[in-house]
Write a structure and sequence with these properties.
397 residues, alpha/beta, Rossmann fold, 7-stranded mixed β-sheet, 11 strands, 43% helix, globular
Length: 397
């Protein structure tokens, strides 16, 4: 991407360089520059994480609209940074997001007053995000089509990291031939396909994405795997529909705090007393924070990351928390691997999606990588049992 300064036209027909003294004298630009300096980010600097402004309205837009202004102005080509992941890692580590909070009060009010993940609204994220296109996601993801954090403890590449994650889940659940596994939010069936092939279990998965269900069925053809296009709240109403194990990998982020308790009640009614439930979810450090407005509008409508305390509160008297495993730093490597795949595949999709989508998607992947690098966002695998495991639970190595 060309990082050269852009000339801006004046009403008299002359132009002004983006690096000119007149532009740099604006109060909004000075305010933004002062903030960024706290994170060692410079406007017009030459380092990969520095900010290159192309449009003189950028600073005003960011100050007025906060996260939304930052993201939308990037989508519109008003500014760039050669390494957005490093840009975001630095500004989040410096907690600059807490100093520019435009739009967050409204987001907080919406979350308090509305059930943003009601039965009626729950399908929106499937239509907006997961139905973007199966070919698109196949180009970005690994061969398993796992759209969740990989496990990089010993992995050298994305494929190995996702294989390690799937196997870790199967071992944590203690899967054995003949068992029945429920996958709440199954995506394209990466876990079910792996568990059926490697561990000899039969699987049922639920998703709210028609595209995922269609491609998943094709990928799992011939295996004891069933896809159901349905909301998780409908599960287990038939008391005969029981499972030995339940997993939910990367779906709890869409449940919403008003529905956490219902979610755990659903999982419990699907399990026998000696069952196990693995919850794999992104999480946040602080309860009081709310979904980023830009992410909510453009990437994951109605998303709501839980704090660890919110998970344990909602599970109280329903499940015993047996183990909590945090490998959130691995999401940084996963997202950057997806970004490399996305950039490499983009020429195939450019005419279909357009440049503004490319900038939006690149911003999403790199900004999220920055949040995990700054450790402001986590990834937990929580093991839960209905009654407590006699002698305790031992996490497999």
């Amino acid at each position: 991407m060309n990082q050269a300064h852009t000339d801006f036209p004046h009403s008299d027909g002359t132009t002004e360089s983006s690096a000119s003294p007149r532009r740099e004298s604006s109060s909004a630009l000075r305010a933004i520059a002062k903030l960024l300096a706290e994170a060692d980010v410079r406007i017009g600097g030459g380092r990969p994480w520095d900010m290159i402004i192309h449009d003189p309205r950028t600073a005003d837009r960011i100050l007025a609209q906060g996260s939304m202004g930052l993201g939308e102005s990037y989508m519109d080509g008003w500014w760039d940074s050669p390494r957005l992941d490093e840009f975001f890692s630095r500004i989040l580590y410096a907690r600059l997001d807490e100093k520019v909070t435009a739009g967050m009060a409204l987001q907080s009010l919406r979350a308090r007053l509305l059930n943003l993940q009601s039965l009626r609204r729950a399908w929106q994220v499937g239509q907006v995000h997961y139905d973007t296109g199966n070919d698109f996601f196949e180009a970005m993801l690994d061969g398993h089509m796992a759209y969740t954090c990989g496990y990089w403890a010993e992995a050298k590449n994305l494929e190995d990291a996702q294989t390690a994650k799937l196997d870790l889940i199967c071992r944590k659940l203690g899967l054995k031939p003949g068992m029945r596994l429920l996958d709440i939010g199954c995506g394209w069936g990466s876990l079910m396909k792996y568990a059926a092939e490697r561990y000899g279990v039969s699987c049922v998965g639920v998703t709210i994405s028609r595209e995922q269900a269609e491609r998943g069925r094709a990928r799992c053809e011939g295996l004891p795997v069933e896809f159901r296009l349905m909301d998780y709240r409908e599960l287990g109403k038939d008391r005969d529909d029981r499972f030995d194990r339940v997993a939910s990998v990367g779906m709890f982020e869409h449940v919403g705090r008003k529905n956490h308790r219902t979610y755990f009640e659903v999982a419990r009614r699907c399990l026998p007393d000696d069952g196990l439930f693995l919850l794999h979810t992104i999480g946040k450090n602080l309860r009081r924070t709310h979904t980023d407005p830009w992410i909510d509008r453009y990437i994951f409508p109605n998303g709501d990351l839980p704090a660890l305390g919110q998970i344990t509160d909602a599970a109280e008297d329903i499940f015993v928390v047996e183990d909590v495993h945090n490998f959130g730093a691995d999401y940084d490597r996963t997202l950057m691997a997806w970004h490399r795949n996305f950039e490499a595949a983009w020429p195939r999709f450019a005419s279909q999606y357009g440049e503004r989508f490319r900038r939006m998607w690149s911003y999403y992947l790199q900004a999220c990588a920055g949040t995990f690098r700054a450790r402001t966002t986590q990834l937990w695998q929580v093991m839960l049992s209905p009654m407590g495991i006699p002698g305790g639970y031992r996490r497999p190595s």
